[in-house]
């Protein structure tokens, strides 16, 4: 895959380049400040972009704003946003434009190299990768409508909201895919959601329900 | 003595200039601000301190008060010197005026002896005014500027809150961009090493070594960061012990005199005082002309103060962005005051007063 990275911390940027090239990806561009992000993405049209929320010059949310701006011009451009901490407002801003090809992960996750690469693949393929912390905050905040769910169904819901496909959920929970489908059908029925199969639409439906 | 008078005359003469400008500019308007800034800096120099900029409506009082008094004082300072010369020359010119010369205090010179005598008496009086009154008037003018142009207690409080916020923000940024990012980079390398372990053990070993170096660097940086926030030595040995430690390491012989009740101060206050002493001692060593330094720390009911005084050549000035400016910021964040006195020839004293946080 061709990837554009926007990360100002030299140590981390170097590590990301090392990681991505070592598994055969191509880093088309590496930029270190907010104003460079949009031009770099428009020029290179990467398969996926990895963008840090905080970038110079202001080091507040330059990266996030650049992502929002570029997704307005190139809807669906896959972007994985990395952040030093996860925040609901930030997640809401990102998801407002659709969950397709969108990732929002804690920076800490890059240490779990395989999980990180999987998330990146998922986002590049038009899927969603939400940090478990974002999802668990959403789940814990709105416990009322989830009261009727069994613990297993909650686990499935959480993984689904993170953007995982049925197969992965089955692997992670060590159950069969059929069991996963059954859980999902139950969850959708209990939450009164219309059944849907496409990954990102499913995530959106779940998140919209949780935020409502 | 006469040099003091000349300096005071110069001060008051320039004061007449700023007085005129104060009368024709608007307080807190762009030109008014500039005039006030000039006055602050020259008053600060005269008083051996730095006057911060205040923005309160009291500035209006300064424009009026200094505008009127400054003109009169400038006229007086400049006018006294010719009077002195005229009085001393009285025996030479008293004849030029018909009917004798009426001196300011009544008697009339009618001959050479009386002209000589009266001239000397008048010169002595004028000289006394020049020597005794003029420097005091100049200092008084500077004090007026200090009192009316510096920030009010309320402004200082507001600024303290802002400065404190900046300080917290700086720490957060250091942790965020430094330590946390380093840990992520290390974690990433360990993750890569794990992947490479079976296929390429040598490559994995390199990555582990890099991660190890990264951990050591992160520890060094973290230690510096912690030191910058609250030096651990304060926790271990208390403020006085920590200051004695600084004194023992200083290149110039340094004595420490500490008062009572200094062991239960707020951590932020302790840290600020510690950094004041550290910075002052660094400066003393750097300029290298002092033969001894005295550090004194004491507290009253509501405040705690520290003074670092050396016997060097004096003339220390505060640079923008220098170490002392950092100290001033830190002290201001705790609503304290910093005062640097360093007349040419010395001694130099840095004095900081902080409200007690305990």
TrEMBL record, chain A:
The keyword Transport does not apply. This is Two-component system response regulator. Keywords: DNA-binding, Phosphoprotein, Transcription, Transcription regulation. GO terms for molecular function: DNA binding. SMART domains: HTH_LUXR, REC. Residues 2-122 form the Response regulatory domain. One of its GO terms (biological process) is regulation of DNA-templated transcription. Residues 142-212 form the HTH luxR-type domain. The modification 4-aspartylphosphate is found at residue 52. CDD domains: LuxR_C_like, REC_NarL-like. PROSITE patterns: HTH_LUXR_2 (PS50043), RESPONSE_REGULATORY (PS50110). SUPFAM superfamilies: C-terminal effector domain of the bipartite response regulators, CheY-like. Transmembrane segments: none annotated. Pfam families: GerE, Response_reg. PANTHER family: TRANSCRIPTIONAL REGULATORY PROTEIN NARL-RELATED, TWO-COMPONENT RESPONSE REGULATOR.
UniProtKB/TrEMBL annotation, chain B:
It catalyses: ATP + protein L-histidine = ADP + protein N-phospho-L-histidine. One of its GO terms (cellular component) is membrane. Its EC number is 2.7.13.3. Coiled coil: none annotated. Residues 268-358 form the Histidine kinase/HSP90-like ATPase domain. Pfam families: HATPase_c, HisKA_3. Keywords: ATP-binding, Kinase, Membrane, Nucleotide-binding, Phosphoprotein, Transferase, Transmembrane, Transmembrane helix, Two-component regulatory system. It is an enzyme of class 2 (transferase). The chain crosses the membrane at residues 12-32, 72-94, 114-134. The keyword Lyase does not apply. The keyword Lyase does not apply. SUPFAM superfamilies: ATPase domain of HSP90 chaperone/DNA topoisomerase II/histidine kinase. GO terms for molecular function: ATP binding; phosphorelay sensor kinase activity; protein dimerization activity. PANTHER family: NITRATE/NITRITE SENSOR PROTEIN NARX-RELATED (PTHR24421), NITRATE_NITRITE SENSOR PROTEIN NARQ (PTHR24421:SF10). This is histidine kinase.
């Amino acid at each position: 895959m061709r990837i554009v990275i926007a990360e100002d911390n030299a140590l981390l940027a170097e590590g990301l380049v090392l990681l991505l090239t070592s598994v055969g990806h191509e880093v088309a561009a590496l930029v270190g400040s907010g104003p460079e992000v949009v031009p770099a993405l428009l020029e290179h049209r990467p398969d996926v972009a990895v963008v840090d929320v905080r970038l110079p010059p202001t080091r507040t949310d330059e990266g996030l704003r650049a992502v929002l701006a570029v997704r307005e011009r190139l809807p669906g451009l896959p972007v994985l946003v990395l952040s030093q901490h996860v925040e609901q407002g930030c997640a809401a801003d990102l998801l407002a434009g659709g969950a397709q090809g969108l990732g929002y992960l804690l920076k800490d996750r890059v240490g779990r190299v395989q999980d990180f690469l999987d998330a990146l693949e998922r986002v590049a393929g038009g899927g969603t990768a939400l940090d478990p912390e974002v999802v668990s905050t959403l789940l814990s905040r709105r416990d009322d409508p989830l009261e009727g769910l069994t613990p297993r169904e909650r686990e499935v819901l959480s993984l689904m909201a993170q953007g995982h496909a049925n197969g992965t959920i089955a692997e992670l929970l060590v159950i069969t895919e059929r069991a996963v489908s059954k859980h999902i059908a139950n969850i959708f029925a209990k939450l009164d959601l219309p059944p849907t199969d496409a990954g990102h639409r499913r995530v959106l439906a779940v998140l919209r329900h949780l935020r409502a | 003595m006469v040099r003091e008078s000349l300096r005071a005359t110069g001060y008051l003469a320039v004061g007449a200039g700023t007085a005129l400008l104060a009368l024709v500019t608007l307080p807190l308007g762009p030109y008014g601000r500039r005039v006030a800034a000039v006055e602050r800096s020259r008053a600060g120099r005269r008083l051996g301190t730095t006057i911060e900029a205040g923005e309160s409506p009291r500035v209006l009082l300064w424009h009026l008060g200094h505008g009127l008094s400054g003109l009169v004082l400038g006229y007086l300072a400049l006018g006294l010197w010719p009077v002195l010369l005229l009085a001393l020359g009285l025996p030479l010119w008293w004849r030029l005026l018909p009917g004798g010369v009426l001196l300011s205090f009544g008697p009339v010179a009618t001959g050479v002896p009386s002209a000589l005598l009266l001239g000397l008496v008048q010169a002595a009086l004028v000289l006394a005014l020049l020597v005794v009154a003029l420097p005091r008037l100049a200092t008084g003018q500077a004090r007026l500027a200090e009192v009316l142009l510096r920030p009010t207690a309320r402004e200082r409080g507001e600024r303290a809150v802002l400065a404190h916020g900046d300080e917290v923000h700086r720490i957060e940024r250091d942790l965020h961009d430094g330590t946390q990012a380093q840990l992520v980079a290390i974690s990433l390398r360990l993750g890569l090493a794990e992947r490479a372990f079976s296929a390429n053990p040598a490559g994995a070993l390199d990555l582990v070594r890099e991660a190890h170096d990264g951990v050591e660097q992160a520890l060094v940086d973290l230690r510096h960061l912690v030191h910058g926030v609250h030096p651990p030595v304060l926790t271990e040995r208390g403020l006085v012990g920590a200051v004695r430690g600084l004194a023992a390491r200083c290149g110039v012989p340094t004595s420490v005199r500490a008062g009572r009740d200094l062991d239960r101060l707020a951590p932020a206050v302790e840290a600020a005082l510690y950094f004041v002493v550290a910075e002052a001692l660094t400066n003393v060593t750097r300029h290298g002309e002092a033969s001894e330094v005295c550090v004194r720390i004491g507290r009253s009911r509501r405040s705690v103060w520290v003074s670092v005084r050396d016997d060097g050549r004096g003339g220390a000035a505060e640079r923008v962005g220098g170490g002392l400016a950092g100290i001033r910021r830190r002290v201001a964040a705790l609503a304290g005051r910093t005062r640097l006195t360093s007349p040419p020839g010395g001694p130099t004293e840095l004095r900081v007063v902080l409200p007690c946080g305990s």
